[in-house]
Design a protein that fits this description.
single chain; alpha+beta; Translation Initiation Factor IF3; two-stranded antiparallel sheet
Length: about 50
């Protein structure tokens, strides 16, 4: 039984907010059994993509 999943969700939301200038959320926070996870990805740098 998970008793404080709202605390974990808040921690992940705060982390996503703190990194919003360098990362985007690919998958929102969700429970998988007893674990909660969220998937972030770096924001693609348009300058790097156009220079190749």
């Amino acid at each position: 039984m998970i008793t404080h999943k709202e605390i974990g969700a808040k921690v992940l939301a705060d982390f996503a907010e703190a990194t919003q200038d360098i990362a985007i959320i690919e998958q929102r926070a969700k429970m998988d059994g007893r674990q909660m996870f969220m998937q972030l990805a770096p924001i693609p740098d348009k300058n790097k993509l156009t220079s190749k």
